[in-house]
UniProtKB/TrEMBL annotation, chain A:
<feature type="active site" description="Proton acceptor">
    <location>
        <position position="124"/>
    </location>
</feature>
<dbReference type="InterPro" id="IPR002616">
    <property type="entry name" value="tRNA_ribo_trans-like"/>
</dbReference>
<feature type="compositionally biased region" description="Polar residues">
    <location>
        <begin position="1"/>
        <end position="12"/>
    </location>
</feature>
<keyword id="KW-0862">Zinc</keyword>
<dbReference type="GO" id="GO:0005741">
    <property type="term" value="C:mitochondrial outer membrane"/>
</dbReference>
<dbReference type="GO" id="GO:0005829">
    <property type="term" value="C:cytosol"/>
</dbReference>
<feature type="domain" description="tRNA-guanine(15) transglycosylase-like">
    <location>
        <begin position="45"/>
        <end position="372"/>
    </location>
</feature>
<feature type="binding site">
    <location>
        <position position="221"/>
    </location>
    <ligand>
        <name>substrate</name>
    </ligand>
</feature>
<dbReference type="GO" id="GO:0046872">
    <property type="term" value="F:metal ion binding"/>
</dbReference>
<comment type="similarity">
    <text>Belongs to the queuine tRNA-ribosyltransferase family.</text>
</comment>
<feature type="region of interest" description="RNA binding; important for wobble base 34 recognition">
    <location>
        <begin position="303"/>
        <end position="307"/>
    </location>
</feature>
<feature type="binding site">
    <location>
        <begin position="124"/>
        <end position="128"/>
    </location>
    <ligand>
        <name>substrate</name>
    </ligand>
</feature>
<dbReference type="InterPro" id="IPR036511">
    <property type="entry name" value="TGT-like_sf"/>
</dbReference>
<keyword id="KW-1000">Mitochondrion outer membrane</keyword>
<keyword id="KW-0808">Transferase</keyword>
<feature type="region of interest" description="RNA binding">
    <location>
        <begin position="279"/>
        <end position="285"/>
    </location>
</feature>
<dbReference type="Pfam" id="PF01702">
    <property type="entry name" value="TGT"/>
</dbReference>
Length: 383, 383
């Protein structure tokens, strides 16, 4: 990363309206719910640092978005997340759409009110979870049909339904419902899924009742086939969406194939709109993908691994339950300033992890989130 | 330590303990309670979430049962349990057992008392016990004692007498060992009053223990259902009448608000605060007015009546219990359907973590979290 951070005085800020209007064409429509300002660009790679303005505040990119399921961060409260500097996190549509259900969430003042989270929220379509969690799902042109695990009823998740739920949740960024196939799959199914995703994108755009408050992102599909992916990019970039996600990757393909598809995608995505690379969250991957031009990332890995007592450090991770940490009186990471590292040693966490006090998991989760939010993409990243 | 009484009436006392702690500059009001911990941490809570509560007790209760197995680690750490668990500012009282987890009977001998940690049974001779205390360096600790005056379900006079004899013998041995250690001399030994439900034994225990140079007294064996309420309170009053006025009286195993008030009237000063934890674990939230209800069982029936049966039947209770939930009149069961849509705070006007004016915790939020077995809910309820 060679480019220095540009200060506000050396570059005149692009007004929010201008960014949106220039993409949409003159005199088109309602004020945009998103504006991206590119603050700095790397001279040697495709990396860039931006300010992403959303309804619930500004987010500096590149950004890692912690994932929370079922309305909380599983062990970390909204207030703690806020104090860790998180400005955008993920709410899970699949779980929340089923339980407690969109009507209840709407009654609570949307997902923000329900979680008491005043920063930005990004919700997924619910589709990915269903396909990966439920063996009984069936994908048709209508949508995805599956059986609810909570009460056994059959549900059809259509593009319209997905957007309806996300509108009720009130997230700042919503994802289109896409036809997801495994990246290791080849053949006509991949092509079918790519084309269907485009058609579902159009249906999602039409179904969005709140485009001035909620941003619908398209998801680029096409698997590992450069021709299919380019076709998808060509079509989806014709649509007037505030942002793009690169989907269908980080699911078992080889690293080389993965990076090729990422860079191909960013080559063909507009500069002035954010690029969200879905499901990428290992530290090394984050750095590479930023260099390839991605702005936003998510992953369950930091929080999921915390629940097994695994703490993230620059050299990898520490399995704190292991005997070697019983008398290790250092914090998880000397350089880390999270609440856990400020106050606790590995030895104490080791002892606590072997008890039935769940506080241990909260400590490790807090650290892992802080590490991911601050660490690889921290404020010094640009310099 | 200096005890100052500001009010005494009909057996109960109001006052402060001054010159507490290592530097002799701390004070504690009584009647009061100690912060309950499990393996050195408040259950489910980290330092940050704990600090949101406005009046955390100045003295924290540690349990030997949860910490004894970490003796070697603490010995090597050298800096005492306070720093090890990340609470260097707190004062500590180390009890022998955990009030929530009853330990199996039959493991006390003339030479040792067993405690039960995560790894199993640990036999504590007076020597071993004192070395563990030396590694912990608490401000106060309960002396090694024989708390088993029951033979099966019933008190036995013979067994009660033995519990008093043994406890006095342990006390004398531990006092001798305390003399030999500079570290231990700076800790305050709390003498333990035993004797089951036999008045003569209780009086003997009180008088004999009071002759020794202890810093305070723990009234042991008054919890559980083996004694009637009348017997319990008569014995407690009789015991406290024998104890010097200028030393604090603690009691273990008493946590329900009405029982705490009764014990205060009988001359007890300090209590454990495990009751909120127990309520949390059964998915309930404390909710009661501070107007004293002399008959909580009647109140419970009045409040709930016939309808309760159906509602409780709807609840998804992970733990199969034959007891009714909520168990006491001091709590509400958040799993009940009637709270599903209830967005009011748990207790109107309560300033705890759950419902400060700027951060309302919604009743509806919790059932979803409970049903999803989310530990954050337990954390929120745990305060």
């Amino acid at each position: 990363m060679a480019a220095p951070r540009e200060s506000q005085s050396t570059r005149s800020p692009e007004p929010m309206a201008a960014v949106a209007a220039s993409a949409a064409g003159p005199g088109t429509r309602a004020p945009a719910a998103l504006a991206l300002r590119v603050v700095a660009e790397c001279g040697r790679s495709k990396a860039r640092a931006c300010e992403l303005r959303l309804p619930h505040g500004t987010v500096a990119t590149p950004v890692f978005m912690p994932v929370g399921t079922q309305g909380t961060m599983k062990g970390v409260t909204a207030a703690q997340l806020d104090s860790l500097g998180c400005r955008i996190c993920l709410g899970n549509t699949y779980h929340l759409g089923m339980r407690p259900g969109p009507e209840l969430i709407q009654k609570a003042g949307g997902l923000h009110g329900f979680m008491n989270w005043n920063q930005n929220l990004l919700t997924d379509s619910g589709g990915f979870q269903m396909v990966s969690l439920l063996a009984l799902s069936e994908v048709t042109e209508e949508g995805v049909r599956f059986r609810s695990p909570y009460d056994g009823t059959e549900i059809l998740l259509s593009p319209e339904k997905s957007v309806e739920i996300q509108n009720a949740l009130g997230s700042d960024i919503m994802m289109q419902l896409d036809d997801v196939v495994s990246s290791t799959l080849t053949g006509s199914r991949v092509e079918e899924a790519m084309h269907r995703s485009i058609r579902w994108l159009d249906r999602c755009i039409s179904a969005n009742r709140r485009p001035d408050q909620q941003n619908l992102f398209a998801i680029i599909q096409g698997g590992l086939d450069p021709v299919l992916r380019s076709k998808c990019l060509e079509e989806m970039t014709k649509r007037d969406v505030p942002g793009f996600a690169i989907g269908g990757l980080s699911g078992g393909e080889s690293k080389e194939q993965f990076w090729k598809m990422v860079t191909l995608s960013t080559d063909q995505l507009p500069r002035e709109k954010p690029r969200y690379l879905m499901g990428v969250g290992y530290a090394t991957d984050l750095v590479v993908c930023v260099a390839l031009g991605c702005d936003m990332f998510d992953c369950v890995f930091p929080t999921r691994t915390a629940r097994f007592g695994s703490a993230l450090v620059p050299t990898g991770n520490l399995q704190l339950k292991k005997k070697q940490f019983a008398k290790d009186f250092q914090p998880i990471d000397e350089a880390c300033t999270c609440p856990t590292c400020q106050r606790h040693t590995r030895a104490f966490l080791h002892a606590l992890l072997h008890s039935n006090n769940t506080a241990a998991l909260h400590h490790v989760t807090t650290h892992n989130i802080a590490y991911q939010v601050w660490g690889p993409l921290g404020p010094d990243f640009i310099g | 330590m200096k005890l100052s009484l500001s009010k005494v009436a009909q057996g109960y006392r109001l006052g402060t303990l001054n010159n507490l702690g290592r530097k002799g500059d701390r004070t504690m009001e009584f009647p009061g309670c100690l912060l309950y911990t499990r393996t050195g941490s408040a259950p489910h809570l980290t330092h940050d979430t704990l600090q949101v509560i406005s009046r955390v007790p100045v003295m924290t209760q540690l349990t030997l049962s949860s910490l004894a197995e970490h003796y070697e680690v603490l010995e090597e750490y050298k800096e005492g349990i306070g720093k090890f668990i990340g609470m260097p500012e707190s004062m500590f009282y180390c009890s022998l057992h955990d009030p929530v987890n009853p330990c199996p009977a039959g493991y006390v001998t003339n030479k040792s008392v067993s405690v039960w940690g995560v790894g199993g049974r640990l036999e504590m001779t007076a020597a071993k016990f004192m070395s563990v205390q030396q590694a912990l360096q608490p401000d106060w600790f309960q002396c090694l004692s024989d708390g088993e005056a029951l033979c099966g379900e019933v008190f036995s006079a013979k067994r009660a007498r033995k519990s008093v004899d043994r406890s006095l013998a342990f006390l004398d041995e531990c006092l001798k060992l305390q003399e030999q250690s500079e570290v231990l001399r700076s800790c305050v030994m709390i003498g333990v009053i035993e004797g089951g439900d036999i008045l003569e034994e209780r009086l003997r225990s009180a008088r004999e223990t009071a002759k020794r140079p202890v810093g305070g007294f723990l009234l042991d064996g008054f919890h559980g259902d083996a004694m009637t309420k009348e017997t319990r309170l008569q014995l407690i009053s009789a015991v406290t009448a024998e104890l010097p006025e200028d030393k604090p009286r603690l009691i273990c195993g008493i946590g329900q608000p009405d029982e705490v008030l009764e014990c205060i009237e009988a001359g007890v000063d300090l209590f454990e605060s495990f009751f909120p934890y127990q309520v949390t674990e059964r998915g309930c939230a404390l909710s009661f007015s501070f107007d004293y209800q002399p008959n909580p069982e009647d109140t419970l029936l009045q409040q709930n009546g016939e309808k309760e049966e159906g509602e409780i039947g709807d609840c998804i209770d992970k733990v199969t219990t034959t007891k009714r939930v909520p168990e006491t009149s001091f709590e509400i069961n958040l799993k009940e359907k009637k709270y599903r849509d209830d967005f009011g705070p748990v207790v109107e006007g309560c300033s705890c973590y759950c419902s400060p004016s700027t951060d309302p915790c919604k009743k509806a939020h919790n059932p979803c979290l409970l049903n999803c077995t989310d530990t954050v809910a337990r954390g929120l309820l745990g305060t």
